[in-house]
Amino acid sequence: MALCHSDGIVFAHLLNIHSLLGNRPAKxxxxxxxxxxxxxxxxxxxxxxxxxCTWAGAYYFLRxxxxxxxxxxxxxxxxxxxxxxxxxxxxxxxxIHQLYGQCTALGIQVFV
Length: 112
Prior knowledge:
Strand content: under 5%
Largest sheet: none
Number of helices: 3
Structural class: mainly alpha
Helix content: over 70%
Shape: rod-shaped
Number of strands: 0
Order of helices and strands: HHH
C-alpha cells in the first residue's frame, strides 16, 4: 500500500471524512479498517491457514500414524499419512513465517 503522505496524516484524514459523512460519529475501528483493512484480512487468512495446518499435522496425522503402527495396514497407507504430515508441516511453516513477516511490516508501518 503506497501512500504519498505518512499514515498518520492519512488516518487523521480518514477519521475526519467519516465524521463528516452523515450524522454518524467518527469511529476509530472504521478509520483503521479503511487504512489497514486488506493487511489485517491477509494476516487473518495466514493465521487460519497456520491453525488448520498445525491442527491437521499435530493432531490428525500423528494420531492416524500411531494407529497405523498399531494395526496391520498396507505400507501405502503409512506413506500417505507421512506425506500428509510433511505437507501440513510445510504449510504451517510457510503460513507462520508469512504471518510474522506481515505483522512486522504492519508494525513498522504503524510505527513510522
